[in-house]
Amino acid sequence: SAAALPMLETRQKPGVTNLLAGDASFSDVIHGDAWSQCHVLPSGNGDAARAVAAIERLPIILDALSNVYDMIVIECGPTDAKGIRRVENQTSEVILSVIDPQDQAVATAAADLVAAGHDRLMIANAGRSAKTASKGRSAA
After folding, report:
1. Residue 139 resides in a domain
2. Residue 69, SS3 per DSSP
3. Which positions ≥6 away from 106 have C-beta within 8 Å?
């Protein structure tokens, strides 16, 4: 996944699709972030058809992770409220990560999510604004 790539520096690590397909265990698919103390469970490289066939196991996997970790961040990629329902529970919060928060598509997506019951929706601006650094300084 796009979020896991910088943390793992490769797309080749096994992940949730391998776990769902039955080709790997938790210890095989949870990887340490190269730059922090986070643990990462990437999308993986397992057989997609077998993973989809076992999708009903996803809530069991997420429950097991929630018993071990204080916080779980799930990158859903482009999805809708129905897709998010598969990975949430009663304590979940939805963060809509966007490039341009002023885009009308963002307002529409946010309204659709709220209408579907995601009333604790947060919109995070993932876009970067171009700021000019002063001479001799770096912009972060």
Report:
1. no
2. coil
3. 96, 98, 100, 123
- The domain boundary, picked from 75, 105, 135, lies at 75
pTM for the predicted model, two decimal places: 0.70
- 3-state class of 11 per DSSP? coil
Q: What is the pLDDT along the chain (140 residues), one digit of tens a residue?
A: 666 767 777 778 899 999 999 999 999 999 998 888 999 998 899 999 999 999 999 989 999 999 999 988 888 778 888 888 888 887 888 998 888 999 999 999 999 999 998 888 999 988 765 454 455 554 44
- List all residues 6 or more positions away from 122 whose beta carbon is below 8 Å from its beta carbon: 93, 94, 95, 96
* Strand 95-98 to 122-125 pairing: parallel
Q: Which domain, by its residues, includes 101? A: 77-127
CA pair distance 104, 90, nearest whole angstrom: 29
Tell me: do 1 and 22 sit in the same domain: yes
Residue owning tokens 């990560």: 97
